[in-house]
Design goal:
This protein is mostly helical. 68% of the residues lie in helices and 2% in strands.
Amino acid sequence: MSVLRKVSWTLLAIALVVSLAPGFVALYPPSEQHRDYPYASPGRHGTSFFPLGTDEFGRDIFSRLCYGASASLLLAPAAAAVSLGIAMGLGMLAGSRRGWPDALITKASEVFLALPWFYFVVALRAALPLRMAPATAALTLFGLLAGLGWAAPARLFRSLTMKLMAEDFVEAARALGARPGRVMFVHILPALWPAARAQMLVSLPAFILTEVNLSFLGLGITDPTPTLGNLLTPLQQYTVLTSYPWMLAPAVVIVLVFLALQTVADPVHR
């Protein structure tokens, strides 16, 4: 394993630990305000220490970043996993049954692929009430992302299933009397796991970026609940973008996570 790949896995492991237990890493509660120190630069101010500075309300950016990672970096992978599960199920069905199930699933995937995915998600979310409870907004985003991201991987799993169905070990299992369900779950599904793993790593940035963009636009999980997206919302103001560079910390985290995911998914770095 290359050094770059090891660094990437280490970075992703740290992000996962922070996402799972933000309270053990954060220095302050995410909504705690230090009104005497709005837009404070990174460092110690009085008796308080802000590693990444504060926002307009004096809230510690580092602490909010930890809790924001918990929302964004867990919500998007969960939605990606559900979407991938749907894609595997539909792809295996289309590739093994052929006939009308194959035609129906293929045509449906073509329709979804023809849609501008991000704008379609924005339109669906905008049709719902803008002000939602954080839990409701999270579940809504989860459902939208999971339900709209299955088309491309489903076509991949369909092709792989069709290829595997023609392999000798599958033909032998069927000749020995294995039922279709056993063929699917014992012989086909394990052979699809490497492709599923690679697809998961490749698709994660798109899911994370969609959640970030929706929250940045105010259509996702809104303040005061932090996410990587709504932590970037103050940067819509030009003065904040140019005067307080530490407010870019969430963007740096997003870029690092994306680079790490691309590195571990790229076979060149193995």
